[in-house]
Design goal:
alpha+beta, 3-stranded antiparallel beta sheet, 7 helices, extended
């Protein structure tokens, strides 16, 4: 059903909807929950054209029930409706909150990330290229399978095949590993990994080392083509303005290689 703010042909006006006492509503009959598409969420990440991820009624209900069963929210909680309804979190999280009896406060906009962090502080709010399952502390691609996953991308079979295999395992595109206690760690986006001397190098790890230097403000690491290494990590570093000439390239190289 499509809604409009003002009276518009072929749309349900919000004002008329609010005045309706509910007597005209009829519950839809859905025969196949797993294949009945409830919504399409458009996604593209930071690359490529938008793709419509098809979410079935079964997947949506499963997601809501999974979160509710883990007591994601409790009936005394107050939940900030941070995302708009056009975002999947803005569509699912309020529903989970409603079903647990929590209060949802819609955001009116204008709350900056900095303000949100201050509020949060105060209130305390795999698989590698061969497909082999990896052991503890081995880095590979994180894959997962669950009833609440999308059925695929709408009319994009090739893109769907790239992320969902025949057994419905979803390739996340994230490199990660787990420790011996089963704790999962996300290392880096696979597309960002640098392939150097047959090793997978995570830019974030080098960036973390560089920013530990007291005079380094920011650091960004990328891979560039190299005739011997395949790709060579290359860092772009911003130094404190007052520290010009006090930090050398050799010093930063030693920091990373040490």
């Amino acid at each position: 059903m499509l809604f409009s703010i003002d009276p518009t042909p072929d749309f349900v006006c919000i004002q008329d909807f609010e005045r309706n006492d509910g007597s005209e509503f009829k519950a839809p009959r859905i025969e196949d929950l797993k294949n009945h598409i409830m919504l399409q969420v458009y996604t593209s990440g930071t690359t490529g054209f938008p793709k419509a991820a098809e979410v079935s009624m079964y997947a949506y209900i499963t997601e809501v029930e999974c979160c509710r069963s883990t007591e994601f929210f409790k009936d005394k909680d107050v939940v900030l409706g941070w995302n708009p309804l056009t975002h999947i979190c803005g569509f699912i999280i309020p529903m989970i909150a409603f079903l647990t009896g929590a209060m949802v406060v819609p955001s009116t906009g204008g709350l900056s990330p900095k303000e949100f962090v201050e509020i949060a502080k105060k209130h305390q709010i795999i698989d590698n290229a061969s497909g082999r399952q990896l052991g503890p502390c081995e880095v590979g691609e994180i894959t997962f399978r669950a009833p609440h996953l999308m059925r695929g991308y709408y009319k994009r079979q090739d893109e769907t095949a790239q992320v969902l295999d025949d057994q419905r395992w979803l390739r996340s595109g994230d490199a990660g590993c787990y420790d011996r206690s089963g704790q999962l760690y996300i290392v880096e986006r696979l597309k960002d990994m640098i392939k150097c001397l047959d090793e997978q190098v995570a830019p974030a790890e080098i960036e973390t080392l560089l920013t530990q230097h007291p005079l380094v403000l920011e650091a960004a690491v990328v891979g560039i083509d190299h005739p011997e290494f395949g790709e060579a990590p290359t860092a772009f570093v911003v130094i404190e303005p007052s520290a010009k000439g006090l930090v050398s390239e050799d010093e930063l190289v030693r920091l990373v290689s040490g």
